[in-house]
């Protein structure tokens, strides 16, 4: 009799985006003429940059010739990409890394969901609330949490760090003992970003209390303010306590192409039960070598092209396009009377619902009256109640139209 991993059964059945899709589907069936605009799901819409497409074409041709064909690549990624990452994303900011501290992956979702496997079964972790759901769900599935507490809408045994308007939606270091903390900076879903000074206090807390920071900077390219760090390794000493993840999904439109990387500094250690320090780098290397056979060669060449001068220019133009949408959302809704956070260092706007409405009620109202799809804040954690997340990844034309429709509802008049 095959016993299943019962931890999976702790996950509540109604997945956020599936619930949204069902509601939108029902609405559009009942209202076939409604022109629905989606400002909900965080997928990009701009095509891959020409420099990236050229690199992919070239790599495809190489795969078609015996002399240049590539089979299994290194599990950690090809050195051409690992070195381009170090040069393009780190050396430019004064951060030195060794090639073998970089692990190329096939998406930050995979990387961030799997990293918890190298920690002990008694792992105690903290997450921001609201938060990108993968941090939490992956730990639930491994058995690092208690049961789902229906009343509170949280998992027992997890340390939630409330992100509220009062603290600028920036989590503060936990007061109780934890082993790891997931930090997303700039944050999905709130779109807010910690400053260098704020991150410094996190690094200090991690050193003092011996926890490791899993730092997800999937939205790093959207940072516009000079006091927001692009990497946790800009903070002195962070290599001892942090692992950093990045994705090409939002900086280069790779949501359907799939490439990412993890930096596991050799200086970063966990501990054995007897307190002996253990380097995480060889552990993650071992994990990847056993579970993963590398990101496809064609895709790694595509990611390498992101760092070419043309690739940088073209991808930045797309990021700027999305950021213009973010400003349209932020300015348009603020003018209409809403309180809006984020959308300055991030493609996400975190919008307070009017007159204390519940997130799902306001989601329904916008769908029915403005034909605009958003994401209810409660889908990201209990402290998301009273907020909606709007994304800037649509077309400029649709973004303007959607914001105008919401403004026309005159909810504050
Ligand atoms: N991390 C955060 C915070 C995200 O918002 C996302 C995607 O939405 C990911 C990771 C996953 O990125 P990828 O497409 O590389 O799997």
UniProtKB/TrEMBL annotation:
One Pfam family cited in the UniProt record for this chain: Aminotran_1_2
Keywords attached to this entry: Aminotransferase, Pyridoxal phosphate, Transferase
InterPro entries registered for this protein in UniProt: Aminotransferase_I/II_large, DapL/ALD1, PyrdxlP-dep_Trfase, PyrdxlP-dep_Trfase_major, PyrdxlP-dep_Trfase_small
Cofactor(s) this protein requires: pyridoxal 5'-phosphate
SUPFAM superfamilies: PLP-dependent transferases
One Gene Ontology biological process: lysine biosynthetic process via diaminopimelate
Limits of the Aminotransferase class I/classII large domain: 35-406
Listed pathway(s): Amino-acid biosynthesis; L-lysine biosynthesis via DAP pathway; LL-2,6-diaminopimelate from (S)-tetrahydrodipicolinate (aminotransferase route): step 1/1
Reactions the enzyme catalyzes: (2S,6S)-2,6-diaminopimelate + 2-oxoglutarate = (S)-2,3,4,5-tetrahydrodipicolinate + L-glutamate + H2O + H(+)
One function term, GO molecular function aspect: L,L-diaminopimelate aminotransferase activity
EC numbers for this chain: 2.6.1.83
NCBIfam families: DAPAT_plant (TIGR03542)
Database matches in PANTHER family: AMINOTRANSFERASE
Protein name: LL-diaminopimelate aminotransferase
Source organism of this protein record: Megasphaera cerevisiae DSM 20462
């Amino acid at each position: 009799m095959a016993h299943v991993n019962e931890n999976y059964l702790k996950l509540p059945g109604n997945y956020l985006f599936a619930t949204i899709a069902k509601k939108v589907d029902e609405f559009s069936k009942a209202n076939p003429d409604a022109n629905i605009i989606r400002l909900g799901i965080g997928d990009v819409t701009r095509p891959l940059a020409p420099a990236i497409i050229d690199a992919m074409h070239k790599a495809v041709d190489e795969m078609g010739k015996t002399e240049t064909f590539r089979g299994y690549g290194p599990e950690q990624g090809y050195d051409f990409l690992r070195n381009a990452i170090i040069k393009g994303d780190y050396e430019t900011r004064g951060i030195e890394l060794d090639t073998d501290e970089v692990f190329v992956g096939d998406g930050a979702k995979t990387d961030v969901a799997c990293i918890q496997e190298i920690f002990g079964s008694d792992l105690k972790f903290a997450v921001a609330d609201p938060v990108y759901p993968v941090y939490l769900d992956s730990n639930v599935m491994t058995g690092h949490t208690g049961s789902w507490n229906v009343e509170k809408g949280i998992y027992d045994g997890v340390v939630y760090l409330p992100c509220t308007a009062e603290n600028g939606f920036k989590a503060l270091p936990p007061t109780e003992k934890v082993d790891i903390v997931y930090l997303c900076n700039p944050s999905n879903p709130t779109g807010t970003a910690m400053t260098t000074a704020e991150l410094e206090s996190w690094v200090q807390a991690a050193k003092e209390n011996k926890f490791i920071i899993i730092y997800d900077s999937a939205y790093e390219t959207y940072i516009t303010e000079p006091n927001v760090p692009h990497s946790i390794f800009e903070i002195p000493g962070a290599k001892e306590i942090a692992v950093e993840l990045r994705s090409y999904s939002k900086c280069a439109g790779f949501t359907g192409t799939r490439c990412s990387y993890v930096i596991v500094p050799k200086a970063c250690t966990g501990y054995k039960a007897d307190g002996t320090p253990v380097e995480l780098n060889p552990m993650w290397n071992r994990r990847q070598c056993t579970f993963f056979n590398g990101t496809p060669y064609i895709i790694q060449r595509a990611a390498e092209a992101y760092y070419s001068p043309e690739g940088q220019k073209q991808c930045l133009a797309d990021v700027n396009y999305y950021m213009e949408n973010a400003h349209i959302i932020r300015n348009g809704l603020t003018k209409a009377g809403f309180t809006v956070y984020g959308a300055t260092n991030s493609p996400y706007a975190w919008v307070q619902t009017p007159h204390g409405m519940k997130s799902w009620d306001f989601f329904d109202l916008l769908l029915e009256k403005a034909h605009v799809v958003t994401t209810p804040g409660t889908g990201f954690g209990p402290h998301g109640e009273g907020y909606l997340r709007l994304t800037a990844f649509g077309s400029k034309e649709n973004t303007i139209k959607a914001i105008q429709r919401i403004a026309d509802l005159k909810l504050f008049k």
